[in-house]
Design brief:
- This protein is α+β, with helices and mostly antiparallel strands.
- The chain folds into 2 domains: about 80 residues; about 110 residues, no CATH class.
- It has 4 helices and 12 strands, in the order H-E-E-E-E-H-E-E-H-E-E-E-E-H-E-E.
- The strands form 4 sheets. Strands 1, 2, 3, 4 and 10 form a 5-stranded antiparallel beta sheet that branches. Strands 7-8-9 form a 3-stranded antiparallel beta sheet.
- Strand 8 and strand 9 form a beta hairpin.
- The longest helix has 16 residues.
- The two termini are about 25 Å apart.
- The C terminus is likely disordered.
């Protein structure tokens, strides 16, 4: 299901991304002047309308080191403007499906993989729809609560190397290391988290 980005859509994205980024609460470069953006990769999440795509975007600044962001968008938005896919419950539900089915989605330069630990099925419970709810207080990333059972944290700014949150997620509460490359469904007294 690889969605081809037309040159027209690519030009639209590149022209709108600087102002789109500046308006996002999670964007860390608000105090800096954007000198340019480069589309590194596009990974389709949903082939149904409206189509959702995760963009990897390199942001270059007038001064200092650039940053790379992961930006899920809806391709069919009102007035042709960019729309953050996190504003759509369908997209949030699709993210959980990627994890449930351990799907691997190919992009032009990389891929997105959903992983689940053995405890995921237990935490999921019977085949029920877990209503996604976007957490609004977080500043640098986006988090979604699924039916009071799971929390998904979507990293907006991405960097090379191991993310400390993922490194911590490889250990369960008893300190036993998880399988390499797997994310644990962590359980505490009052909450569950899928990393």
């Amino acid at each position: 299901m690889h969605l081809q980005i037309t040159s027209e859509l690519k030009q639209t994205l590149l022209s709108q991304l600087p102002s789109f980024l500046a308006a996002q609460r999670w964007f860390g470069g608000k105090a800096r002047q954007i000198a340019g953006v480069e589309l590194i990769d596009t990974i389709p999440i949903s082939g149904t309308e409206p189509k959702s795509i995760v963009l990897s975007v390199a942001v270059k600044y007038g001064e200092g080191k650039g940053e790379t962001y992961s930006i899920p968008i809806i391709t069919v938005a009102h007035g042709g403007l960019l729309e953050d896919a996190f504003s759509r419950p369908e997209f949030l539900a699709e993210l959980l499906e990627v994890i449930k089915q351990e799907r691997e989605l190919a992009g032009d330069a990389g891929r997105l993989r959903g992983y689940r630990a053995a405890s995921f099925a237990e935490l999921l419970g019977p085949s029920e729809a877990l209503k996604p709810k976007l957490v609004s207080g977080e500043q640098s990333n986006s988090s979604v609560i699924y039916g009071e059972r799971f929390i998904l944290k979507f990293f907006r700014r991405i960097e090379e190397g191991e993310n400390p949150d993922l490194e911590i997620g490889r250990f369960n509460p008893t300190g036993v290391r998880a399988e390499p490359g797997r994310r644990l469904a962590l359980r505490s007294k009052n909450s569950h988290c899928v990393l």
